[in-house]
Design goal:
- The protein is an all-alpha fold.
- It has two domains: 94 residues, Endonuclease Iii, domain 2, CATH 1.10.1670; 101 residues, Orthogonal Bundle (Endonuclease III, domain 1).
- Helices cover 60% and strands 0% of the residues.
- The chain has twelve helices and no strands.
- Helix 1 crosses helix 11.
- The protein is elongated, with a radius of gyration of 18 Å.
- The protein starts with a helix and ends in a 7-residue tail after the last helix.
Length: 211
């Protein structure tokens, strides 16, 4: 198969497995999504969804968040890991949203990436999920699977993102991003993976997987 043919096979297979997609992080608006994605760094979505109701009970808007002490935020989010940095980041980004964006999460990549604790992937998730702007966030699952399926060279996440954007039209990016994540967790894990039983790797997986 050519790379475009492999990409089409992946798209068809994932659409059959996951006809409906929704972001696994519970949220109500762009701000609560932004905070949840910041908390998800090196933390499971399940744990984030357990912690955000506790945090949002105290503050669910940037106006409310800036009134909390950083230590108070840290105490609540500690189970998510990296609590000191995340607490400082959440408080800091809330301040900037209040001071520079009239209390609303900005809807541009550059403005989002300028916020504390917000990298390219986090900004991409917010852009596509909160504002419907085409983006293809690449996390460790997507980076790993794009390499396994020979859709990308896998040199780095930036190259993987560029490769996938070239292979798929913009109107597929949002769904594919989530479908690949779901598939990676359920069928194509980093460890203990049997490519011969994988619905996709068994067809287009790298030869090195079978050695």
């Amino acid at each position: 198969m050519t790379r475009p043919e492999k990409a089409a096979f992946v798209s068809r297979t994932l659409a059959e497995l996951y006809p409906r997609t929704s972001i696994p992080l519970d949220h109500e608006d762009p701000y609560t999504l932004l905070v949840a994605v910041v908390l998800s760094a090196q933390c499971t979505d399940k744990k984030v969804n357990e912690i955000t109701p506790l945090l949002f009970a105290k503050a669910r808007t940037p106006q409310q968040m800036v009134k909390l002490e950083v230590q108070e935020i840290e105490d609540i989010i500690r189970p998510c890991g990296l609590a000191p940095a995340k607490a400082k980041g959440i408080h800091g980004l809330s301040e900037i949203i209040m001071e520079e964006h009239s209390g609303k999460v900005p809807n541009s990549m550059s403005a989002l990436e300028a916020l504390p604790s917000v990298g390219h992937k986090t900004a991409s998730v917010v852009m596509v999920q909160a504002f419907g702007v085409p983006a293809f966030p690449v996390d460790t699952h997507i980076h790993r699977l794009a390499w396994r399926w020979t859709l990308s060279t896998g040199k780095n996440v930036e190259r993987t993102e560029a490769d996938l954007k070239r292979l798929y039209p913009e109107d597929q990016w949002a769904d594919l991003h989530l479908r690949i994540i779901y598939f990676g967790r359920e069928h194509c894990p980093a460890k203990g993976h049997d490519p011969r039983k994988c619905p996709i790797c068994s067809v287009i997986g790298r030869k090195s997987l079978f050695v």
